[in-house]
Amino acid sequence: MRSLFVLVIITLTFQFSGCATITRGTSELLVIESVPSGAVARLSNGKICITPCSIALSRKESLNIVFEKEGYEIGSATVSSETLGAGGAGMAGNVLIGGLGGIITDSVSGAAKSLTPNPVKIYLNKIDLGD
After folding, report:
1. C-alpha to C-alpha distance for 27 and 3, rounded to whole angstroms
2. 125 near 72, Cβ under 8 Å?
3. Count of alpha carbons within 13 Å of 99, Cβ hemisphere only?
4. pTM score above 0.85
5. Pairing assessment for the beta strands 75-82 and 114-116 based on DSSP bridges
6. Distance separating the N- and C-terminal Cα atoms of the chain
7. Residue-wise over 1-38: b if at least 16 C-beta within 10 A, else e?
8. What is the enclosing helix (H) or strand (E) of 23?
9. Which are the contacts of 54, defined by CB distance < 8 A and separation ≥ 6?
10. Pairing between β-strand 40-43 and β-strand 63-68 as defined by DSSP bridges
């Protein structure tokens, strides 16, 4: 009876844990760069940093970034949440091991997704004062 209980626990663990959730996690470090550096990067989720910088974000969070630096035109970039290489491999692992529960877990948690582009790099144009 005890071995049956252990077998049920192991089966449930595999069924309700996703391969990508286990191997990749649900967050990703987004690297944000600008040329020139020192620009204020304002993310649409309310976070702010000075380039170059890195911010941990949910893998399922698409967002916009506005870049501002005195003497330069305002720039912007879009970051999308997409299922790419490693996330797709994690989802494929669910077919072999995790089953439907793993597929659902990875889909809901965003673990099968990646932020793209990463790093985000933008080139700011100097404002021409027309000397």
Report:
1. 36
2. yes
3. 8
4. no
5. antiparallel
6. 87
7. eeeeeeeeeeeeeebebbbbbbebebbbebbbbbeeee
8. helix 19-24
9. 29, 30, 31, 32
10. antiparallel
pLDDT in tens, 74-83: 999 999 999 8
Residue 105, burial from CB neighbour count under 10 angstroms (0-12, 13-18, 19+) = buried
52 and 36 in contact (C-beta within 8 Å)? no
* Residue range 86-117, pLDDT digits in tens: 544 444 554 555 455 555 554 545 568 999 99
For the chain, the farthest-separated pair of C-alpha atoms sits apart, in whole angstroms, at 87
Helix 85-93 vs helix 99-109: crossing angle, to nearest 10: 150
**Do the beta carbons of residue 28 and residue 114 sit within 8 Å?**
yes
Structure tokens at 51: 């380039």
Contact status, residue 101 vs residue 93, Cβ threshold 8 Å: no
Nearest-10 crossing angle of helices 99-109, 2-15: 40
